[in-house]
UniProtKB/TrEMBL annotation, chain B:
Cited Pfam families: SBP_bac_1
Transport among keywords: yes
Domain of life: Bacteria
Annotated InterPro entries: Bact_solute-bd_prot1, SBP
Organism (species): Phycicoccus avicenniae
Name of the featured protein: Carbohydrate ABC transporter substrate-binding protein
């Protein structure tokens, strides 16, 4: 409780700018904070965070250095053995590469679709409002359901080919999920489609906050709509771009459900994201190896997050 | 400032918890159930069990298997048995649960060496060595499977699958083929004849992937009989040696020669059943879950009329057996003596007094001398069961680990890899799994 006393003493100093001081954990409420919440209210949330997030992450580090498997009862430390093996056989790097490519594609499609929709549906007409609701529905759908629906639509004898056959008059039996090169793009489009409603919403919010005077001024300067978009509105959307790109990119690094339901990692494992690979390895009973991979994934996300967010924030500074 | 001080405290707290975390939770009851705790007693099949509750884990495709026999058992003993469905992929879900310390009393499980070690049988399962029901089996089936290191851990309830060829009788007849092929080469020859006659000889379901391994495994039947898997287990022979690699080459050659359905890259299990029933394809190399698929699409009379089965191997008609999860049960060492005994009692009931009820309800082939096959078992199933007696073990049965051969083969079908790469990937994964199990030859 010594710390509590310290805080109280310090807060007694009238000159100390109270807003700058760290939050209090215990002790009687400071009269000037009485209207705010006591920090101890956060404890349950922190406890949950500790048990379900922090500890698993720590264990994730620990188990990666063991030989934990379903085959035997004891768990021994094996040093960096798992890392050496995984790096030497190339499978891990392959899955990591696929994951990064996928994440970049998803970030691209999701933001492209979201931005297009936001610009299209910007005006608050009745039709636009209704369209926004419908376009937001995929965000609320189960990712597995989305995956299975698209898998059925894109089968060689699925609905898409049936429609194309009807329209073109020729028999179309393309295996849309059959190419080892392009399937990852198709799946990324599906992922982008599912989440585009969210990006749309955030871009819409961004567009709404743009000062009408700026638009008016640029109109008076004789700009075309395209010039206004490129030189005024899009740069002013920078904070929305930061949020959307970062969440799409980093979120899809952890992707699993959509791809698992659509392709299961195929064809020929060309869409086997790291998470699918981890899942498969875990299923083989190689728990330590799977843990090592998920640690690598965790580090990758962390390593990508800082530069990506930093870069996007710097864009905002130009404003 | 405050957070700067709480973080180290949290780290210390977490570090204190680590030693607890480093013992395998699945092993907490390790010594209670394993082998040497004197020969386990086998209660009478119908002894009173009022108040005892048992749980059986089953997969989505096996959760109805125990229904009738369990109801009869409850009736006879007063026990209450819950059949809990574990979501697919079943093996993976069960392994994960057991690894975290969650165990049922009984579970459906593939009774092969590799899958029993995947459950860490010596620690987690009850040995079933002196079970009274063993003498009921037909002698040639008694020791077919369910063993790991000479200890019996699984009870076979249904005829294990035998990899072989399901064929459309009408298609062969129409093309003047009256005798079924007598060896692998003969079968390929028949296939080529059919191809010339404009019939698709074989089917592959590259979309669902898992059946791709059957083409390689049937070609390995003779080598398996000569101890191939022992050599692979001892790290003396590798998947990259000609004995295995050649079979992969042959398989790819047949695909390239156009002996398979056009959509072999994307076709599914479902498509395969439809194609054979419709006569769009003449032959399918498969196991009996495929026949289950056919049974869901046609009745026994139609199946008897249309579908036949023969085993195949390079040198003749030897089948390759591959028991699956719906064929057998394992009893867990839960640490509760009464429930462990009750679980054994249920197995005993199932394979003695309850067995006629079971085969009748399931319309399945009987494994026991005294219990006849129920009327209405389709012919193809009986042929498959007949192939069992002189069959050889599959990779799953005899190899210490079960690598994802089928995935690597499916990759090859997609054109992404070569047979050599398939063999290398399979060997690498096999070595990894064997090493995790502590198999000596793979220790470094």
């Amino acid at each position: 409780m010594a710390q509590g006393t310290e805080v109280r003493e310090r807060s007694a100093t009238p000159s100390a700018p109270s807003a700058r001081r760290g939050p209090r954990l215990f002790g009687p409420a400071d009269p000037r904070h009485a209207s705010s919440y006591p920090v101890s209210f956060l404890l349950p949330a922190f406890a949950v965070l500790l048990v379900f997030f922090f500890l698993p992450t720590v264990y994730n580090f620990v188990y990666a250095f063991t030989d934990w498997s379903s085959f035997k009862a004891e768990i021994n430390f094996v040093g960096a053995d798992n890392f050496e093996r995984l790096l030497s056989n190339g499978d891990l790097l392959r899955a990591l590469r696929i994951t990064v490519v996928y994440a970049v594609l998803v970030a691209l499609f999701q933001n492209l679709f979201g931005l297009l929709l936001a610009v299209l549906l910007e005006n608050d007409t009745r039709v636009n409002r209704l369209s926004r609701v419908f376009l937001f529905i995929p965000v609320l759908m189960s990712a597995l359901a989305v995956g299975y629906i698209f898998q059925a639509l894109l089968k060689p004898d699925g609905a898409l080919n049936a429609v194309l056959t009807r329209v073109s008059g020729d028999e179309v039996s393309t295996a849309w999920l059959g190419s080892t090169t392009w399937t990852i793009v198709v799946v990324a489009v599906i992922h982008g489609w599912k989440w585009m409603g969210l990006s749309m919403l955030i871009y819409l919010a961004g567009l709404k906050t743009i000062d009408g005077q700026l638009i008016e001024a640029s109109k008076l300067d004789g700009t075309t709509a395209w010039q206004r978009f490129v030189h005024v509105r899009f740069p002013l959307l920078a904070p929305a771009v930061t949020f959307n790109v970062a969440t799409a990119l980093l979120g899809s690094l952890n992707s699993f459900d959509i791809v698992q339901a659509t392709t299961g990692g195929g064809p020929a494992r060309s869409t086997e994201l790291l998470n699918i690979f981890i899942y498969r390895t875990f299923g083989q009973g190689l728990f330590a190896q799977a843990t090592t991979m998920s640690l690598v994934l965790f580090l990758t996300v962390a390593l990508m997050a800082f530069p990506v967010v930093g870069l996007l924030r710097r864009r905002e500074n130009v404003l | 400032m405050k957070t700067a001080r709480t973080l180290p405290a949290l780290l210390v707290g977490a570090a204190l918890l680590l030693p607890a975390a480093c013992s395998d939770p699945g092993a907490s009851t390790a010594d209670t159930g394993s082998g040497d705790s004197a020969a386990a007693e086998w209660p009478e099949a119908t002894a009173d069990l009022a108040g005892t509750e048992l749980t059986i884990w089953a997969a989505q495709n096996s959760n109805t298997v125990p229904e009738a026999v369990v109801a009869a058992f409850e009736e006879a003993t007063g026990a209450s048995v819950e059949v809990e469905t574990i979501p697919d992929p079943y093996e993976q879900s069960v392994q994960t649960r057991v690894a975290t310390g969650d165990k049922p009393d009984l579970a459906f499980w593939q009774p092969t060496g590799s899958q029993l070690s995947a459950l860490n049988a010596t620690q987690n399962l009850q040995p079933l060595d002196d079970a009274p029901y063993l003498e009921n089996y037909k002698p040639e089936l008694r020791d077919l499977t369910g063993m790991l290191d000479d200890t019996r851990y699984a009870a076979l309830i249904k005829s294990p699958a035998v990899i072989g060829v399901y064929y459309n009788k009408e298609v062969l007849e129409e093309n003047g083929i009256t005798e079924t092929p007598t060896s692998f080469d003969d079968m390929v020859e028949t296939g080529r004849e059919l191809q010339e006659a404009g019939v698709t000889p074989f089917f592959e379901m590259g979309g669902d992937r898992w059946a791709t391994q059957w083409w390689v495994q049937v070609q390995l039947a003779d080598a398996a009989a000569d101890g191939l898997w022992d050599e692979i287990n001892a790290n003396e022979t590798s998947f990259t040696d000609p004995v295995v690699l050649d079979t992969i080459d042959t398989y790819q050659g047949l695909v390239e020669d156009g002996l398979f359905n056009e959509d072999y890259k994307t076709a599914t299990f479902e498509d395969e059943g439809d194609a054979l029933l419709a006569g769009d394809v003449a032959m399918v190399v498969q196991v009996n879950s495929f026949f289950g698929q056919l049974q869901s699409k046609a009745d026994t009379a139609e199946l008897d009329e249309k579908i036949g089965y023969f085993p195949i191997s390079p040198g003749g008609n030897v089948g390759t057996n591959i028991p699956d999860q719906s064929n057998a049960l394992v009893a867990f060492a839960t640490g509760d003596d009464d429930r462990e005994a009750a679980a054994r009692q249920l197995l005993n009931y199932w394979l003695s007094e309850g067995y006629p009820t079971f085969v009748e309800d399931q319309q399945t082939v009987s494994l026991q001398t005294e219990v006849p096959n129920p009327d209405g078992v389709p012919e193809a199933l009986i042929s498959e069961n007949e192939a069992l007696a002189d069959s050889v073990g599959s990779m799953q049965s005899l190899a210490v680990a079960n690598p994802d051969l089928y995935i690597y083969l499916a990759d090859m079908l997609q054109g992404a890899t070569t047979p050599q790469e398939v063999a290398e990937q399979t060997q690498a994964q096999f070595a990894e799994l064997a090493r995790a199990q502590g198999v000596e030859a793979f220790d470094e």
